[in-house]
Amino acid sequence: MIADLDYGLLPDESEDHFLGLEQAQLVGTDTLLTTRDNIEAVIEAKAMMCVYGPAGSGKTMSVNSALRHLAPDITHRLELRAGPTPRDIRHGLFQALGLPGEPPARPIEFDTLLKEALAEEFRILVCDEAQWMKKTGFEFWRHLWDDKRTNIAVIFAGGDGCYKILRREPMLASRIFIWQEFTRMSKDEVRATIPAFHPVWADVDTVLIDAIDKQAAHGSFRNWANITTHILSGMKKPNLKQVDENLVRWVYSKIGGV
Known about the structure:
This is ORC1/DEAH AAA+ ATPase domain-containing protein. Helix content is 48%, strand content 12%.
């Protein structure tokens, strides 16, 4: 059974934020700027890069943003799920590259077709949710990148699982040009970022922002997007004009675990 994959070019910027949060802003954090610098270097070197860290820390958002700025027309993105095999990756690349006809039935013929396509012009291949891959999946990417005919840069983005697999395999790890670790935002980063992240937080007291992060958001962009969505829903009620402790407690009753 072929694993579930998403194919194609970069999504619209409005899709970057969890739950499609309206009015959410991409904040120029140090991490975002570092990602852009690193990807620019990877593109120039035609190399491979591993972006890794906990869920909700902004990996995909930062990579997508950087590539929209640097090379939107030559980026092809795959999002892997459900333990993809090399066969799944072959079919994913076939669709992401928009190749004509039917996929070849035999792996050797399929690989030849992909290599010929990837030799035609320089392309950037993004493998998102790479933590789902096993060694055989990473080996397949290495096989494509190592071929002297192909003209590609490869960016892996995923959780700590992809980092651990790559690091314990010298043949794979030695080919990664840049490793970039994402972490959850620190208290100071939250204070600097969240008021700019969405207008609803612009005038909220720092003490309350600190409390929300400590109790529920835990430095995660995804958690903040989730909380913000509930805040906006709660503010639709009569006479609610600003974020206060009562509204925050109501949000906590929705998200649980606080």
